[in-house]
């Protein structure tokens, strides 16, 4: 069972999502069925006749109240792998948050969850300026940290010097094998490994400072630390911050997103949708108006997305390889005038380092 689906004059769609228990409770709590009117948290007698007898209404309300009684359990600790470990250059913590938004070009029935790490003060103070605070895509910083951790673990001898470890020749092969295994786990963003190894991450405007727990690393390598061994290993990454809308993006010296070179899934979906819609339109199967009605979107959205079928092959290759600059997002691709007749001009404008 789903809620009614509605479409506004602008092409936006609402409803069509699952009729959940919360929606049912909200419906059953509506006093209008008992002949009353709710206004600003208070209930007043209405001028319309009730369609549910008062006794039956009261019984239902009592049942609903009893259903929500019981012991409320505390929320479990955050599952974000960098929760409690991420700080800005002033020492302020960045805390994990998330938001849910409709998928690009779709209705509210399909929503996608977006995770971020934001400055604690900005999260709790709505008047705080976005330009004075940090809001970083969670997966981006997590991938960057995992990638830098893997780099820091690449040289067993350098680690031994930093940790003041004496690795016997007979142990070297085992330690090297274990480090290779750890780097593989980091490449797959294994949460337990990252949470254990990362002691502290400090984000500066022009670099990331990563402190690796010496105790956790020695334990993973099955080695004993010397009494005077440092508590952490410091690793510096040449990753800078660049602002994109309300969020900050992490980029390397070439302007490409730091960490993983995976393609941006939002851009991939736009490209796939563009070629699908252009194929339908070019074959004359339906016109743009009918296609928009079928997809529950506006004609304007259809035309803007379909234009991406004429995107420069060089730009498409960069997107597929995950090498597009962070400035090349969905908004930039769909901007008016973005798809020029010249492929060279498109590549020059879209692939320029930020």
What is the N-to-C succession of helices and strands? EEHEEHEEEHEHHHHEEHEEEHHHHHH
Shape field: flat
Largest sheet, order of strands side by side? 5-9-10-11
Average pLDDT for all residues: 80
Summarize the structure in words:
The protein is an alpha+beta fold and 354 residues long. It folds into three domains: 6-67, no CATH class; 77-260, no CATH class; 265-350, no CATH class. The chain has 14 helices and 13 strands. Strands 5-9-10-11 form a four-stranded mixed sheet. Strands 6-7-8 form a three-stranded antiparallel sheet. Strands 1-2 form a two-stranded antiparallel ribbon. A hairpin with a 2-residue loop joins strand 3 (36-39) and strand 4 (42-45).
List the helices and strands and how they pair.
Blueprint: E1 6-7, E2 13-14, H1 21-28, E3 36-39, E4 42-45, H2 54-67, E5 86-88, E6 94-102, E7 111-119, H3 120-124, E8 135-137, H4 138-152, H5 156-163, H6 169-187, H7 191-197, E9 198-203, E10 208-213, H8 214-220, E11 232-237, E12 240-244, E13 247-251, H9 265-282, H10 288-295, H11 299-306, H12 313-320, H13 330-333, H14 343-350
Parallel strand pairs: 5-9
Antiparallel strand pairs: 1-2, 3-4, 6-7, 7-8, 9-10, 10-11, 12-13
